[in-house]
Prior knowledge:
seven-stranded mixed β-sheet, five-stranded parallel β-sheet, 25 helices, 39% helix
Amino acid sequence: xxxxxxxxxxxxxxxxxxxxxxxxxxxxxxxxxxxxxxxxxxxxxxxxxxxxxxxxxxxxxxxxxxxxxxxxxxxxxxxxxxxxxxxxxxxxxxxxxxxxxxxxxxxxxxxxxxxxxxxxxxxxxxxxxxxxxxxxxxxxxxxxxxxxxxxxxxxxxxxxxxxxxxxxxxxxxxxxxxxxxxxxxxxxxxxxxxxxxxxxxxxxxxxxxxxxxxxxxxxxxxxxxxxxxxxxxxxxxxxxxxxxxxxxxxxxxxxxxxxxxxxxxxxxxxxxxxxxxxxxxxxxxxxxxxxxxxxxxxxxxxxxxxxxxxxxxxxxxxxxxxxxxxxxxxxxxxxxxxxxxxxxxxxxxxxxxxxxxxxxxxxxxxxxxxxxxxxxxxxxxxxxxxxxxxxxxxxxxxxxxxxxxxxxxxxxxxxxxxxxxxxxxxxxxxxxxxxxxxxxxxxxxxxxxxxxxxxxxxxxxxxxxxxxxxxxxxxxxxxxxxxxxxxxxxxxxxxxxxxxxxxxxxxxxxxxxxxxxxxxxxxxxxxxxxxxxxxxxxxxxxxxxxxxxxxxxxxxxxxxxxxxxxxxxxxxxxxxxxxxxxxxxxxxxxxxxxxxxxxxxxxxxxxxxxxxxxxxxxxxxxxxxxxxxxxxxxxxxxxxxxxxx
Length: 645
């Protein structure tokens, strides 16, 4: 770490046990140092900033009060957990966070015993923590279990499923709701503050617990009556405060809301409620980006701001004299608005990613026709299906790895009914530093078996525009377009919008050498999507090294479903060796589809080499580094071409 600041306390904290040696009065200073440490590191090594700054006090309080790692803390979502990593033996390695072979981008049990569960996707904490709490009870362990859910994760359906189940299964779990302006409850008033002091008062709770134990021993308070007592307690609160929240109608004790940035008060409350029997919810109010003015002012931008100047707060952008291609997401956003102006049936849907997928462009111009449904991917698809059923044309944009959570919705609420809607899969393929929970590796494989789907991927930005235009034409059914994170290859991308023939690929290279050679000498490369640019570069590299024109053909398939069968028959008759390249898992994707077609049509003497993401979870790192590891970079493809030529 840097040496600009004097970390009087943090430099002596290697693990939470060291933190617990301090007095409560020293904790505010620990929080100041932890917040500065996160800022200093992320200024140079970008990551998720705003969320981790917002839970500094909570992080310190949790590790101070609970006996971690024996006690379990389940984070949701993982980009809140940078302070947790620093306090749990990883401060000296935090400079490697999100780098190849460095610390993982999110908590992961294989990395540290303090990481209770994987949390790259939102809304799973309550269900996982409930499972751990039940395991502790059945194993007769005294382990405490805490689920920390926030930063929008409460909008996910899985969170509500977990809370609903927690109300009926015996457990002593604590759910901490980190509310950073999600409007789950109204602001705390004077009476609510008084009730928080009362219900977390040790004398009050000691008397309350002893009375309940006596009533239970006398046979007066059974399980049903105990739940009734909790409901009565919550009802009294509602009457006195003239306010209600979603938890007060359930058999779960509710505390809050309280200031999530008062570490001393958090410690006091946690010490009291951690020993209480039954499920509990502590509602805290926090500010995303807390303690750093630029991040507090613009939480969306500073969620993951990239490199920035620590002192001035200026974000550092890469400078270049040459015009740069746009990001695929921005081409999507601009084209969607362009199409929506022409087609009044088009609406936009996104699960909490309007800026990330650039649907904010249409949202700003046409707010009545764009819908952010929160972290609820399954709902986003079914909601889109409902609109499609009654004549609208939804463009539903969901990151590829998050679309996994909506699999049944795609089948049951779209494809079966042949509904006209467009599923746009942003961040398809290898995404880089966010790692295995975010790589869009599986969409081609899990979508290909579903009937009534059209699945395509553009080679470049112009192709993306034309695929979007094609998708919104009448009677196209459920249309899937996948494209990667980051920039494409075209600076001049605003092409004329025109339709593409569905299920038809195109030859990118049919050289004189290819046409002149015999079937035994030719090599054909089949690609899908922007990874085709790597293959094109690989062909050029191979020719430079061999010093002559190679008998290599290259076709951009454009569509995985339906496949261009005429093109594949041409391949089967004209080549003995085929190389498929895709930015997705090789099991079940383009390569598998080509093998199936060749086998089904009697082309049994063709050698097929499949290049793509191997049958493993790929770690985090820069996209170029991961392409090389997977053998998907131009150099690796070049070697494959030379070997097969």
